[in-house]
Amino acid sequence: MPNQTKWSIDQAHSDITFKIRHLMIAHVKGSFKTFDANIYTYGTDFSTAEIDVWIDAASITTGDDNRDEHLKAMDFLDVVNHKQISFVSSTIGKINEDQKHELWGELTIVGIKQNVKFDVEFGGIMKDPWGNERAGFTVTGKIKRADWGLVWNSNLEAGGIMIGDDINIACEIEVTNVGFKDLKMEVENSAIETV
After folding, report:
1. Residue from 144, 55, 46, 146 nearest 103 by CA
2. What's the total number of domains in the chain?
3. By the 8 A CB rule, do 189 and 32 touch?
4. Is the pLDDT assigned to residue 155 strictly greater than 80?
5. Are the beta carbons of 111 and 79 closer than 8 angstroms?
6. Each residue's pLDDT tens digit, 61-89
């Protein structure tokens, strides 16, 4: 059994952003400032990745304090009762004609789990000037906020609604190889403990 590699997110070179329709004519953009993940691969093969991401829901920012407070309130993320947004991967598909992988998993918002798909573009693996092995990805996708019961809205006098249902997600993620976990040794140790 091959070694399993652990990767750590480089916070300084990563971001999780989103945009949503406003007044049906433009977009509001935002991001989450605090997030982390456990990422493991077999060797450096990211098609084998096991991904567990968690986001501090209260770290949402859109550039407007009043709007941010509303997004943190019960109408939306209800951060008092649901402190984290999480994503746990289930499968990663083979590369397609667009040079992207399909990443499937469970996205949990306000305590509700939904199966979602994201597209992942692998940027490659490179050694930085200090000898650290790094990998980069662009992750994109679209979800509907109503799937998590986030249905607050306001009707406009001229017709239509204030904010759309579709949320476009875009992430730039850079990770660093932080070591190996010898699964063979782990299995042997587990077998010894059970004897």
Report:
1. 46
2. 1
3. no
4. no
5. no
6. 999 999 999 999 998 999 999 999 999 99
